[in-house]
Amino acid sequence: MAIEIRPVSQAETKEYLRVLPYVNGFPQEEPEPSAWYAGSAAWLPQVQKTPAELEQYAEELLTDWFRPQAAFVDGKIAGGSAIVSVQVTVPGGQQVALGGVTSTAVLPTYRRRGLLRQIMSAMLDDCRERGEFLAGLSASEATIYGRYGFSPATFQHRWEVRRTDVAFRSEFTDPGALELVDHAVAAEVWPVLHEQVRAVRVGEISPLPGKWDGLGGLPADGSGPAHHLIHRDATGAVDGAAIFRLPWSPDPEQAGVLQVEAFEALTADAYRALWGLLLDFDLTKRVVAARRPVDEPLRWMLTNPRALKLTRTRDNLWLRVLDVRRALEARTYAATDSLVLEIHGEGRWRLDATPDGADCTASDAQPDLSMSVNELGSLYLGGVRASELSYAGRVAERTPGAVSRLDALLRPDRAPHNAVGF
Ligand SMILES: CC(=O)SCCNC(=O)CCNC(=O)[C@H](O)C(C)(C)COP(=O)(O)OP(=O)(O)OC[C@H]1O[C@@H](n2cnc3c(N)ncnc32)[C@H](O)[C@@H]1OP(=O)(O)O
């Protein structure tokens, strides 16, 4: 078979859309909140489209931020994937370009013949040419993307708590105020709030264009209508917001569940006030929250921290460092130190790191530490410790103490987290 890998042209977008429905079909542990997960509910694999809608979709598919590549087998599209242009916040606060791999699927009749391998290679080359020194994705299966140098860098929790188990350790007097708002107000609040959050949260991703458009009318997808809660500080400025649903169910087990679909707080006051209301909501039995950071402070507010039960923990953003020097120079560090890092296949680098930034230069000195680009991807945002990877045999310490020194450099203030995906 003759295989050609290349970008999809406008004339080919309709044919390319035949592949997209096969992106789905992987087993999900449980349904995710509809609108928050990965963005638009209008994403093709999630809804059946009429022929007219498909025409429109194909017409508008190619944009300057969505770059699909396809594998043409004997002239016909047999698989595809795409890079979306987004930004990720790295330690120190810089928001750097990230090539986001998404919408990956090979038609079932063409799988295991090396098509994804070739598509991925073309897409990562494209990222390098555009100067994107990081690529990222969220993985349908954890066994696929390690071979291309990706590795988990952020993680997320799903938790639930029974209302009868909730008691707060201390009274909280809110200097601000909570307010239920309609969709139109929420649609104005969220983009601004998320920009403020993203400026300070390592790992957070910039929203794709149109991300917030749907907020005005989040679908009532069986989970009931979306409710919008905001918090204002004492000056009236919005410093937190939540979206929740109160799904009705004939099943008593599923009834009385308050689902938190989105939650952001810029201040501790907003955080405490919003959870205070959501966890003590009349006529509910349980609160369920998904896509939450792994260092959720909420448990420390409860008299019984065990009441908050983790029901799922999973990797979220996988990173692939495409240019070691630029990546290491883009972030800041928690200490001042110098280490020589050998990154298999990507050279040997002397990192002179400080809290204000770093210099990274090619080096032929003896390395202090050796690892592959996968380990570097996991370490980069500070969500995984070098000592953990060293114990697992994945980071080799050549100079005694070098693992601890690297941990001290990369130590994060908060666990990296991205509530927004792509
Ligand atoms: C980032 C995202 O978009 S996540 C969504 C990913 N999409 C899906 O899961 C949809 C369903 N799956 C598919 O469409 C395909 O199986 C794909 C896209 C995952 C893989 O496409 P293929 O063309 O079959 O992969 P390809 O033949 O290039 O395989 C490359 C390597 O990955 C391995 N591989 C491929 N799929 C899988 C898998 N599901 N699990 C484990 N290993 C896999 C192959 O064995 C091969 O290994 P090798 O390098 O050791 O030889």
Automatic annotation (TrEMBL):
Residues binding acetyl-CoA: 112-117, 140-141
The protein's name: GNAT family N-acetyltransferase
Transferase among keywords: yes
Residues annotated as the enzyme's active site: 145 (proton donor), 422 (proton acceptor)
Subunit organization: Homohexamer; trimer of dimers.
Organism field: Kribbella sindirgiensis
GO molecular function per UniProt: aminoglycoside N-acetyltransferase activity
Cited Pfam families: Acetyltransf_17, Acetyltransf_9, SCP2_2
Lineage: superkingdom: Bacteria
TM spans (from-to): none
Alphabetical keyword list: Acyltransferase, Transferase
Domain N-acetyltransferase, chain residue ranges per copy: 3-175
Family, similarity comment: Belongs to the acetyltransferase Eis family.
GO biological process: aminoglycoside antibiotic catabolic process
